[in-house]
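Hi all, posting the design record for the shared folder.

TITLE: backbone redesign
STEP: 1 of 1
STRUCTURE INPUT:
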C-alpha cells in the first residue's frame, strides 16, 4: 500500500479543448507549477497542488482509483463513465463538484436532414452510432425505444453517410459539423460543460484542507468571471 499523499493532484487534459482553459482557471486560483521534461506532470510551486496531464477519457478512472483527487473534464465524459458503472452494477466512484462555465456543448441525437422528425419512437429498429453508449442506451430505455447502439470512438458524424448507422448521438456545439454531414439535431440528451470532478466523499486530513482552500479560491475565480 502506497503511503498517503500529502499533496493534492488534479488531472487535466494534456491537449484538446479543455486543456488551456483548465490551466488558466487553476492559474487564476494562484497556483503555479514547474513542468516535468515529459510534460505529463506539473509540480505545484506556490501550493502543494500538482497537475497530471492526461487524455480526458482517463480522468474519471484516475479519480476512481485514487490516483488523482480532482479532474477537469466534460460533464459528458463524467456522466458516460458513471452511467457505464451503474449499468455494470458498480457504485459511483466520482461526482461533479463544480460547473466551470467553459467547454459548453450538448449531447444530441441527430438524423439525416431529409427525415421529417416525429419523435424518438422513429428510432425503433434503427442503428444509432455514438461514443456515448451508456448515456444513449439509458435515454433510449427512458423513451421506451428499442434501437441498436453502435459504438464508434470517433468520426461518428460520417457513420450515416458510410452506411454504418441510420442516426448518430454526439456532442454538438455550433452544429456546423452535423450540417456538413447532412445531419440535423432532433433531441438533446443533456447540456454539458467542463466540470471539476472529484471523489464521492469529502477528502480528509491535509488533502481535505488543500481541497477546501482550492474550492474557496475556485469559487472566487468563478464569481469574478460571471
Ligand atoms: O485527446 P483527448 O481524448 O483528451 O480529447 P478528445 O478529443 O476526446 O476531447 P476534445 O478536446 O475534443 O473535447 C473535450 C471536451 O470538450 C468534450 O468532452 C466536451 O465536454 C467539450 N466540447 C465542447 C466539445 C465540443 N464543445 C465540440 N464541439 N467536444 C467535442 N466537440 C466536437 C463535436 O462533436 C464536433 O465533432 O467538435 C466538433 C465541432 O462541433 P460543432 O458542433 O461546433 O461543429
Ligand atoms: Zn477523449
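Okay, here is what came back for every position:
SEQUENCE:
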Amino acid at each position: 500500500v502506497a503511503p498517503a499523499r500529502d499533496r493534492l493532484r488534479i488531472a487535466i487534459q494534456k491537449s484538446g479543448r479543455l486543456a488551456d482553459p483548465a490551466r488558466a482557471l487553476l492559474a487564476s486560483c494562484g497556483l503555479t507549477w514547474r513542468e516535468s521534461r515529459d510534460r505529463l506532470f506539473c509540480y505545484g510551486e506556490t501550493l502543494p497542488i500538482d497537475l497530471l496531464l492526461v487524455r480526458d477519457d482517463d480522468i474519471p478512472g484516475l479519480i476512481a482509483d485514487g490516483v488523482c483527487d480532482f479532474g477537469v473534464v466534460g460533464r459528458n465524459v463524467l456522466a458516460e463513465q458513471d452511467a457505464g458503472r451503474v449499468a455494470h452494477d458498480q457504485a459511483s466512484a466520482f461526482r461533479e463538484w463544480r460547473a466551470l462555465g467553459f467547454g459548453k456543448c450538448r449531447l444530441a441525437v441527430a438524423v439525416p436532414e431529409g427525415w421529417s422528425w416525429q419523435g424518438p419512437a422513429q428510432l425503433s429498429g434503427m442503428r444509432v452510432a455514438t461514443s456515448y453508449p451508456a448515456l444513449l442506451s439509458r435515454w433510449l430505455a427512458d423513451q421506451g425505444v428499442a434501437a441498436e447502439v453502435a459504438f464508434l470512438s470517433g468520426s461518428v458524424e460520417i457513420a450515416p453517410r458510410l452506411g454504418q448507422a441510420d442516426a448518430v448521438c454526439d456532442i454538438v456545439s455550433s452544429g456546423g459539423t452535423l450540417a456538413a454531414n447532412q445531419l440535423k439535431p432532433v433531441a438533446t440528451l443533456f447540456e454539458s460543460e467542463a466540470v471539476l470532478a472529484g471523489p464521492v466523499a469529502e477528502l480528509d486530513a491535509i488533502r481535505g484542507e488543500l481541497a477546501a482552500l482550492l474550492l474557496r479560491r475556485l469559487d472566487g475565480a468563478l464569481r469574478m468571471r460571471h
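COMMENT: Helices lie at 19-27, 59-64, 75-87, 133-143, 176-180, 205-225.
Let me know if anyone wants the other runs.
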